[in-house]
UniProtKB/TrEMBL annotation:
<dbReference type="InterPro" id="IPR052345">
    <property type="entry name" value="Rad_response_metalloprotease"/>
</dbReference>
<dbReference type="InterPro" id="IPR010359">
    <property type="entry name" value="IrrE_HExxH"/>
</dbReference>
<feature type="domain" description="IrrE N-terminal-like">
    <location>
        <begin position="354"/>
        <end position="481"/>
    </location>
</feature>
<dbReference type="Pfam" id="PF06114">
    <property type="entry name" value="Peptidase_M78"/>
</dbReference>
<protein>
    <submittedName>
        <fullName>ImmA/IrrE family metallo-endopeptidase</fullName>
    </submittedName>
</protein>
Amino acid sequence: MSKFEFFGEPGVFQIGLRWTNDSELRRYRPLNHGWSVGDLTIIVADQNLTSSERGQSKQGHVGWYLSPLFDWLASNWSSLFQEEDFSWSEKSAAPAAVACRRAIARWIAADDELGKANYKAAKSWFERHALRSCSEGGLFPDIFIRRFGDAVEISWTSAPPFMPPNGFRFACEPGVARLPVSQVAKPLWNAMQWFCANPPLSLDVDDQRRWAEICEKIDSLRNISNEELEKAYVPEDVLKLARQVLANAGHLELLEPERREEPFLDILSPAIAMFGGVSPELNQADVGRLCDVMIKFQSGHDSDHLAAVVSPGLNSVMGSPHEDGYSLAEDLLDELRYLRGNPTWVDVRALAGDLGISVEELEFDTDSIRGVALAGEGFAPAIVINLRSLFNADEDGKRFTIAHELCHILYDRTRAKRISHVSGPWVAPEIEKRANAFAAYLIMPRGLLARNLTQVGRIDRYVAARIAKALRVNESALLEHLYNLDFIDEWDRERLRQEYRPQS
């Protein structure tokens, strides 16, 4: 038995591999991969995801056939490190290990066409991102890998494999980690190079051919183009249009990603980050408008005031999106000392202006774009409001959008220290939910609410309408916010909802 070969750092991501001997005669083993028995260990953030227990016995690795793992890595490389979006409508902020399994369970027995399509999409996504999809009956842990902005999300459960031995369990608790792309992709790439450079001993002619076929597939990844990688992150038709528009404008540099020697994109280009959050049906005119926005604000920089309050590296939600958004807004108002002058409402347009952020209003053809945030290295900070969006039908809605995009500018910058972001239904739900919570608290801070509620007894629709007018917010948004801040209970919220509901 050989020693483990380790790639990566256990404090971030590490994979360990070794070939082992199989006492079973070759003719009794699986035809395609029975030659590749070995041991595997995967460690994320110092947690061994392959550690297991069976009775009193404990083991830090799993032993099984390894060639299906490497074939899967080579076959799904672009998806693993570039595909962020789920292939079904996912409204939760759950990591992939939870969201994907929940989607499969929800639709596996569906007998309607939409449910069947959703099941097919979720199952296909599982096969591209779940380690167990390549286990071939082995005791592989339940690990999912996907892109998440300029990071890689690794999430896992402690769910046992299909038909495990009696008493077998994985010892690691469920979890999720968002890690730099290079610190996951590079160890896996090096592991694949190890596989190709160190075949198991004593392979027969047929098994040598099978090993060589996988190595050829791995080696072909060296020639994969940036555009091929980008298509897993951005809808292909949109990517093609953006490339044409930026080429005609002489600004293809906005589409150039940071490519390493290995076949992965460590940092997304501004255009790829921008268009990763749009509808696949976005038309040419709107692609052009978004490109024009990037070109217009290119070569600028943050004001000193904005730079002082930006908190990079928070693009991963720390707790619940709702709690994080409220906390970030409260901290910002405190840092800016905004409420110390006893304002009667929060003027977010003026606040953005004080931070040196331009606010522009454009009418797109699509209503699926709510707003755009642009800032960071190489860009002057800007917020664009889409007048076509129903969210921006009046000034109250526009103010909410400004506050929403401000959250992205302050807290959702990537490892490239910039943000180029379109807000809409195609963006990671947890990021949008946090920005919504931030916006709600920013324009309706607890201190102002408490001041308006002084000497108010029972809150009825007339009191709520007066407060909403004073704070210049939508009444329904105020109602939900009062409930979230415990000014009213669930019974009062439902009562007020009924009072606002039009009578037939």
